[in-house]
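Hi all, posting the design record for the shared folder.

TITLE: backbone redesign
STEP: 1 of 1
STRUCTURE INPUT:
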């Protein structure tokens, strides 16, 4: 359910009956980095890790000269620099790329190295196929068994020229016909939402649900309340209480399907939505995915 001014109101509805009714629900996950000690604190900075079923977030308050390296990384990953005055160098396939703050990059599989040239926050986005990082997550125990209602991860097709380093500036003007600023790769979709300039109008909320994919809501700055409600099924034993969770930056909320959810900005701030694999409905809207020309869509729903 969307307000008529919300561009998502024009999304095509999923075919009725396509997804079988759930027989179990998973709980939401709330990782409040601001009130928890980091999983790692070293010369390079402070590092927090939290995960969903298919993806994880490595959030680093990086110091000058920090090196964040990956060896034999199994698939593409994202690097988000939310601070405009930060800067890193990404080394991959024998080439060195300088990534300025307020940018997003996708890094190909294999060996890579990120060196912090100007300190700031470095947010790395991985699938949970990065098993070593998944094991470090503060909520790893919640995923000891696969959670219900989420199909196995299937990456989207690689570009015809293969997987290479690609980077994009976040400095994209708002467009009322587009929802946020969306980029995708073969494994991830990253939606850098338009910044909240103050509390959200409570008369224009957007409660909705996803049948079979989870959503990560990464609060970078400000504060949001995440409202969640699970549907009442005929099996009363799986019912869950409503949740209204206040989360400041930095924090990650993982919203499981098919919970009804909406997020309410409480003050000026910035939130990023994460999906793994990319969303087909967003990708099907012309002009919504800003790097659609770089990554082909699957021939059918993944």
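Okay, here is what came back for every position:
SEQUENCE:
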């Amino acid at each position: 359910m969307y307000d008529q001014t919300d561009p998502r109101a024009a999304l095509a509805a999923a075919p009725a009956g396509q997804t079988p009714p759930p027989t179990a629900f998973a709980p939401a996950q709330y990782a409040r980095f601001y009130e928890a000690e980091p999983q790692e604190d070293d010369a390079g900075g402070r590092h927090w890790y939290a995960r969903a079923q298919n993806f994880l977030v490595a959030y680093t308050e990086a110091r000058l000269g920090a090196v964040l390296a990956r060896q034999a990384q199994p698939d593409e990953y994202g690097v988000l620099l939310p601070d405009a005055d930060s800067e890193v160098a990404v080394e991959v396939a024998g080439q060195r790329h300088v990534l300025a703050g307020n940018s997003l990059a996708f890094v190909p599989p294999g060996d890579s190295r990120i060196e912090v040239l100007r300190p700031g926050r470095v947010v790395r986005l991985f699938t949970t196929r990065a098993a070593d990082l998944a094991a470090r997550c503060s909520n790893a125990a919640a995923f000891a068994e696969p959670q219900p209602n989420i199909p196995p991860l299937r990456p989207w097709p690689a570009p015809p020229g293969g997987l290479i380093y690609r980077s994009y500036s976040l400095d994209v003007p708002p467009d009322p016909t587009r929802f946020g600023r969306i980029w995708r790769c073969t494994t991830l979709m990253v939606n850098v939402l338009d910044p909240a300039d103050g509390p959200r109008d409570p008369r224009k909320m957007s409660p909705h649900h996803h049948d079979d994919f989870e959503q990560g809501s990464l609060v970078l700055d400000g504060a949001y309340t995440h409202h969640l409600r699970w549907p009442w099924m005929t099996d009363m034993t799986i019912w869950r209480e409503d949740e209204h969770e206040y989360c400041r930056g930095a924090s990650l909320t993982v919203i499981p399907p098919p919970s009804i959810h909406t997020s309410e900005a409480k003050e000026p701030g910035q939130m990023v939505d994460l999906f793994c694999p990319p969303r087909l409905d967003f990708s099907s809207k012309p002009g919504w995915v800003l790097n659609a020309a770089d990554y082909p869509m699957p021939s059918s729903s993944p």
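COMMENT: The first strand starts at residue 29 and ends at 32.
Let me know if anyone wants the other runs.
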